[in-house]
């Protein structure tokens, strides 16, 4: 193939891809609006009361007054329209103002999305929680991938060997035992009996030197490993079957017959092709990192986004639940697109027409 | 403030160790530096406790407050290891530091470290002055003879943590802040019948009432109504109240600690308020109050792993708690206040075939319950219950059998109903036989086609479900059939008028929950059970007489109690009201529940207070 032809072709592909992405993004807008309405309507229909957790010494009239001060006595469409304005107009404007230190219009009278429980802007709390969740849940995802890929490859290459059998067993256990159980077992073993690791995550801890870094490692290792074990179990199974599918294909036989070394056959030819579905899996799983691992965060008191969501649900903090779930919806739609695009990059046979 | 009597005896040298802060160096001697120097030596990390940043905070605070010479001196003096940091765990995370905007126990108690009321209740339920000079009474002229006003004299020389003086204007401001309807103030029940507030001078406040108040200790008494600083909150009144995030998360106070960092629904870092009015207090330099998780794992963090020093509100099954205690790292602290787990017996027909215009509505008594309106049945249900068994199974040492709905304080506790302590299923059977309820072929009693079949609801909670199962068995033995139901607490206790599952709607025959009253006077609490307060659409289901039981004698006594001054006659009236409710079996008290928390063995000075904030005396905590 001539150099010029290659260039023209990749130019066409680039254009097609941009057109594809634009189309998908445009489609995403009505999808997201529909999702936001569905979430709001569901939350509104579900019986809930932000004063439900208050002590019974607070009389019902006071509760009614509190609900009124939260704006709960307003009609559903008004509350939904208010939230739309706050979330899609006021919050982005506020972000821009803060990022560039400018004032756009009458920023004092613009209302933000306010949590019922803390009476403070929801977006600020989410921003405060983001680092914890990204560190703990994100790290566990990375660790999970790093464990899963080699195990998956080796199990497939040495199918039905003792390594494969053990791997299958461990994955089955990891997949089927919930994190609230493995987490508790880890706490009882490492915190209560051995007293090696803290059972409570200190979110105010800052790493400043080697000693405080060691403290950070100690407090992060249990939640990360518990989650990584769970993630790795799923992913390694997936990797294994994908490699197995490829190992029996004609191009592998061709490569071997050409005299390519076995290591190169496996790690270059087979691996690249097997990674296509696995990368899609990984990309689709990234939004769950932001969703936090609700149960694991709760067990180790990591207090990230997952804990924020569960506390908000329990306390009927509707603006918080609404904003968080909608952000998750945005991430899921976004990473679906990313996965589709990655698919095309890894597999040139895929066309975006 | 009351000092811990036991604690003082245990550590005689404590006074010598108590430091003043550097800002007061003119009055501090060499001994003052010893305490602080100890902080540097405390090898917190060596114990695996993650408080690196706290150490940093201490160092930073010292650098900020002390001259360079003093720091050098402190490092020279070698001192014994001393840990002046306390880790507190609340399994419900704190959402705001402004209790007026929340009303939750966790917010009230966290805020009690920083902002204080005029008077508090101590652990025996006695009132004592905090920011007030003395408790106003009729004897000392603080309470007017017509009982329509109370005049508080304030302590002189109290300053806010920012150095400005605390005056009567702050008190007046706080009262008006809460009375503003647009705030949605959660403490406004404490301000019931208040006409207005007036600062007579800088250190005198008068609260006037629209009616005679025999017990005028609602406003500014107890952790529910602390004083906030007028200067800080002056632009945060009315509709602006929730917008003041900085103020609501970090109120300036007069209390022993001040907020260093507040993370909503996560963790709060406090440090000692160096301008606290009592010299040498608080003993602790810094406090971390962490939230999240559940009660059982909170208990574990104090009792088994020893990572935390204090854990709040441990409703954990007794056998699990005992097992954790065996690790020997901590102890349980308890206080019996007015929490009573009770059964509420529906006096109106809750049949699911009835429409919303009849179901569980009093309708002037024309809609009686088909069988629970029979007093024999209600009495039999109470007689059949073995309360001691319920205590042993679900509460252990943290619960006691009670036959009263007002179990404390002692002056208000009736002694007329002690018969309930011993179950008597034979008598229950006899009563039912006598009333014509005869067992059918399936063992369930019936009369005129009405079967004694009860729908029994409560909130979702493993201890409550255990109690439900036991009571079902006990009732089965006297020929009563029970269907159990549990509802998520947020829905059950939530006042959503659209939900059929709230405890106000009471679409069931029997329901169970715990309630209590604020402070030490039950007037407001019992007034909630008058006939008129039966929930229904006419009061948007906001009524408080859940049983829908009506007694003319009770209603008359409510009016009488409202004008009876504190004393023997008041106690007798309240006891009689308790007895009427119990004799009618509108409410069946089961268990008197303690406020239960855990403390590390090294933490001294903790005195559990069921009448006020549990952290009420944190300035006296030490190791």
Q: How would you sum up the global shape of chain A?
A: globular
Distance between the termini of chain A: 23 Å
The gyration radius over C-alpha positions of chain A equals 25 Å
CATH architecture of the domain at 129-314 in chain A: Orthogonal Bundle
Describe the structure.
The complex is a heterodimer of chains A (353) and B (623). With 353 residues, chain A is mainly α. Chain A has a domain at 129-314: MetI-like fold, CATH 1.10.3720. Helix content of chain A is 75%, strand content 0%. Chain A has helices spanning 3-45, 60-69, 76-100, 122-157, 162-176, 179-193, 210-247, 250-257, 262-290, 294-300, 305-314, 318-346. Chain B is α+β, with helices and mostly antiparallel strands and 623 residues long. Chain B contains 19 helices and 19 strands. Chain B has helices at residues 5-10, 14-17, 30-41, 52-65, 68-76, 105-111, 168-179, 230-233, 245-249, 295-303, 318-325, 375-383, 387-394, 425-434, 462-476, 489-492, 523-527, 552-561, 568-584; strands at residues 85-90, 119-121, 127-129, 149-153, 194-201, 204-209, 257-263, 267-272, 286-291, 310-311, 330-345, 399-401, 438-439, 445-447, 450-451, 453-459, 481-487, 510-515, 587-600. In chain B, the strands form 4 sheets. In chain B, strands 1, 7, 8, 9, 10, 11, 12, 16, 17, 18 and 19 form an 11-stranded mixed beta sheet that branches. Chain B has a 3-stranded antiparallel beta sheet with strand order 4-6-5, covered by helices on one side. In chain B, strands 13-14-15 form a 3-stranded antiparallel beta sheet, with no helix packed on it. In chain B, a hairpin with a 5-residue loop joins strand 13 and strand 14. The model of chain B is unreliable at 1-78 (pLDDT under 50). The chains are: A mainly alpha (353), B alpha+beta (623). The interface between A and B is large, with 65 and 81 residues.
């Amino acid at each position: 193939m001539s150099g010029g032809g290659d260039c023209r072709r990749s130019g066409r592909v680039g254009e097609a891809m941009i057109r594809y992405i634009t189309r998908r993004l445009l489609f995403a807008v009505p999808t997201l609006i529909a999702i936001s309405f569905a979430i709001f309507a569901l939350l509104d229909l579900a019986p809930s009361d932000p004063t439900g957790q208050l002590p019974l010494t607070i009389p019902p009239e006071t509760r009614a007054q509190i609900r009124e001060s939260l704006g709960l006595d307003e009609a559903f469409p008004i509350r939904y329209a208010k939230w739309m304005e706050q979330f899609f107009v006021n919050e982005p404007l506020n972000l821009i103002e803060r990022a560039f230190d400018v004032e756009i219009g009458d920023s004092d009278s613009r209302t933000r999305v306010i949590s019922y429980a803390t009476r403070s802007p929801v977006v600020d709390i989410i921003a405060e929680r983001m680092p914890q969740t990204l560190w703990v849940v994100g790290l566990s995802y990375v660790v999970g991938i790093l464990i899963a890929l080699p195990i998956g490859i080796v199990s497939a290459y040495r199918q039905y060997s003792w390594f494969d059998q053990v791997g299958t067993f461990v994955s089955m256990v990891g997949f089927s035992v919930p994190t609230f159980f493995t987490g508790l077992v880890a706490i009882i073993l490492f915190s209560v009996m051995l007293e090696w690791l803290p059972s409570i995550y200190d979110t105010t801890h800052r790493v400043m030197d080697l000693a405080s870094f060691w403290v950070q490692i100690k407090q992060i290792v249990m939640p990360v490993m518990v989650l990584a074990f769970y993630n790795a179990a799923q992913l390694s199974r997936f990797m294994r079957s994908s490699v197995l599918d490829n190992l029996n294909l004609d191009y592998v036989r061709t490569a071997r017959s050409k005299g390519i070394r076995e290591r190169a056959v496996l790690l270059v030819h087979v691996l690249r092709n097997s990674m296509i579905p696995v990368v899609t899996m990984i990309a689709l799983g990234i939004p769950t990192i932001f969703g936090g691992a609700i149960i694991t965060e709760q067990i180790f008191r990591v207090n990230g986004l997952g804990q924020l969501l569960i506390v908000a649900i329990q306390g009927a903090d509707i603006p918080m639940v609404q904003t968080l779930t909608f952000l998750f919806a945005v991430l899921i739609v976004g990473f679906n697109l990313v996965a589709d695009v990655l698919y095309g990059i890894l597999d040139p046979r895929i066309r975006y027409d | 403030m009351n000092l811990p009597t036991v604690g003082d005896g245990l550590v005689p040298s404590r006074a010598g160790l108590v430091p003043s802060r550097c800002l007061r160096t003119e009055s501090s001697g060499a001994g003052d530096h010893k305490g602080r120097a100890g902080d540097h030596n405390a090898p917190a990390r060596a114990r695996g406790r993650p408080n690196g940043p706290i150490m940093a905070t201490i160092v930073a605070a010292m650098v900020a407050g002390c001259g360079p010479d003093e720091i050098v001196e402190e490092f020279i003096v070698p001192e014994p290891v001393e840990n002046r940091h306390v880790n507190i765990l609340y399994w419900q995370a704190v959402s705001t530091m402004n209790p007026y905007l929340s009303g939750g126990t966790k917010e009230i108690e966290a805020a009690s470290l920083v902002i204080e009321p005029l008077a508090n209740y101590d652990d025996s339920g006695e009132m004592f002055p905090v920011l007030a000079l003395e408790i106003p009474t009729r004897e000392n002229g603080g309470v007017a003879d017509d009982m329509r006003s109370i005049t508080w004299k304030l302590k002189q020389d109290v300053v806010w943590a920012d150095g400005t003086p605390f005056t009567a204007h702050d008190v007046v401001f706080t009262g008006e802040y809460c009375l503003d309807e647009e705030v949605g103030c959660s403490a406004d029940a404490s301000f019931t019948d208040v006409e207005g507030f007036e600062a007579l001078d800088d250190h005198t406040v008068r609260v006037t009432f629209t009616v005679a108040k025999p017990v005028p200790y609602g406003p500014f008494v107890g952790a529910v109504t602390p004083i906030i600083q007028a200067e800080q909150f002056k632009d945060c009144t009315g509709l602006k109240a929730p917008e003041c995030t900085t103020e609501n998360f970090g109120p300036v106070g007069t209390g022993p600690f001040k907020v260093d960092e507040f993370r909503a629904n996560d963790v709060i870092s406090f440090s000692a308020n160096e301008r606290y009015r009592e010299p040498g207090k608080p003993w602790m330099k810094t406090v971390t109050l962490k939230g999240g998780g559940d009660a059982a794992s909170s208990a574990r963090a104090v009792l088994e792993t020893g990572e935390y020093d204090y854990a709040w509100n441990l409703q954990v099954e007794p056998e699990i708690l005992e097992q954790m205690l065996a690790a020997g790292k901590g102890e349980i602290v308890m206080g019996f206040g007015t929490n009573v787990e009770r059964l509420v017996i529906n006096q109106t027909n809750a049949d699911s075939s009835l429409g919303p215009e009849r179901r569980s509505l009093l309708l002037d008594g024309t809609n009686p319950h088909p069988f629970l309106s029979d007093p024999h049945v209600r009495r039999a249900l109470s007689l059949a219950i073995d309360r001691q068994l319920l205590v042993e199974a679900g509460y252990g040492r943290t619960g006691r059998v009670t036959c009263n709905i007002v179990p404390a304080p002692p002056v208000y506790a009736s002694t007329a109903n002690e018969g309930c302590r011993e179950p008597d299923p034979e008598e229950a059977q006899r009563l039912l036989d006598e009333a014509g309820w005869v067992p059918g072929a399936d063992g369930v009693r019936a009369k005129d086609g009405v079967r004694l079949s009860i729908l029994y609801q409560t909130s979702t909670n493993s201890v409550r479900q255990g109690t439900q199962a036991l009571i079902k068995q006990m009732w089965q033995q006297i020929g009563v059939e029970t269907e159990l139901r549990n509802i998520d607490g947020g829905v059950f206790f939530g006042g959503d008028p659209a939900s059929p599952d709230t405890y106000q709607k009471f679409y069931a025959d029997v329901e169970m929950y715990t309630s209590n009253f604020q402070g030490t006077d039950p007037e407001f609490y019992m007034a909630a059970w008058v006939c008129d307060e039966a929930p229904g659409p006419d009061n948007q289901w906001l009524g408080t007489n859940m049983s829908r039981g009506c007694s003319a004698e009770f209603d008359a006594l409510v009016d009488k109690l409202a004008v009876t001054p504190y004393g023997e006659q008041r106690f007798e009236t309240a006891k009689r009201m308790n007895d009427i409710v119990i004799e009618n079996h509108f409410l069946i008290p089961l268990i008197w529940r303690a406020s239960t928390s855990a403390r590390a063995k090294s933490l001294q000075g903790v005195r559990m207070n069921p009448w006020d904030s549990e952290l009420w005396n944190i300035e006296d905590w030490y190791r």
